[in-house]
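Section 3.1: Structural characterization of target chains.
Under the original work plan, the team committed to producing a structural model for every single-chain target entering the pipeline before any wet-lab resources were allocated. The record below documents one such target. The sequence was received from the expression subgroup and is listed exactly as submitted; it comprises 343 residues.
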Amino acid sequence: MRWDNLTDGPARTGALFGADAVVTRTVDTPEFRGITFHEVRARSIVNRVPGASRMPFEWTVNPYRGCSHACVYCFARKTHGYLDLDTGLGFDTQIVVKTNAPELLRRELGSPRWTGAHIAMGTNVDCYQRAEGRYRLMPGIIEALRDRANPFSVLTKGTLILRDLPLLREAASVTEVGISVSVGFTDTALWRTVEPGTPSPAARLAAVRALTDAGIECGVLMAPVIPFLGDSPEQLRGTVRAVAESGAVSVTPLVLHLRPGAREWYTAWLGRHHPHLVPRYERMYAGGAYAPTWYQRRITRQVHELAAEFGIGPARRAAPRAAAAPGPTAGPAPAAPTQLSLL
């Protein structure tokens, strides 16, 4: 494993982890069977998004690498290759845990150089995957953001977010908090094969209902819409109807994209489960990682029309809040941060 390229040995600069800070553990319990955890002490936790990215935010926090959700299409698979870890099964079962993430975030938010910009979480791998039930990093992360009145957003497929509902409500009282749950479809047979480690779509939509009932506005990222498997008019209608019934304030469709790493793993899965679709996918994604523009626009139009039919409007923007005075260890509050949307 390429830990030596990422640790702070004698001549290393820009290292990700301390040289003696990697501990590998296996846990022989049913919920973690077959999963290996690599516990590391990260050197930084607030990451700048590359300028060429299509993402509408500039900063992220990722307490984990790899994800036991095991979504066959996950675009983050390629990042595991940076550690000489397998981007297929290894991505699903070799989880890197940044055990010092909460304390590190508190320190970085307190830096005079930090301007209080929006921080997005769950945009690479899910911060509420099963590992979070063991390591409990998110409460400390949310507390650090709350204490600095720093705006943030969370995207998740994990129902474990409900554990932190009291903290999310506290944070939302002093800054802008955006929560989105990812539900691309409600077909249970499709879910079991493409997202085998996630809570069911029904459980995720129940989490949306619990969040909205608690006063936390929650949108649904309808992602991915999977060509030829989850994009029929009936499937789209059923999913948008279920989203509306969950109380979500918005629904945003995102068509499956297949970046290197994910493309190979997804194509192998497709060849095993739906071999007749392989030629169609080769044609559809011949131009690169994204489906053709005409197809993306068609799906977006259909979902928006269904959303209007079922009464889901655009996400409502909360009224601005004055930043609360930070606690004694938090330092001066950042001035007038700009709120960005997760989506």
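The chain has eleven helices and eleven strands.
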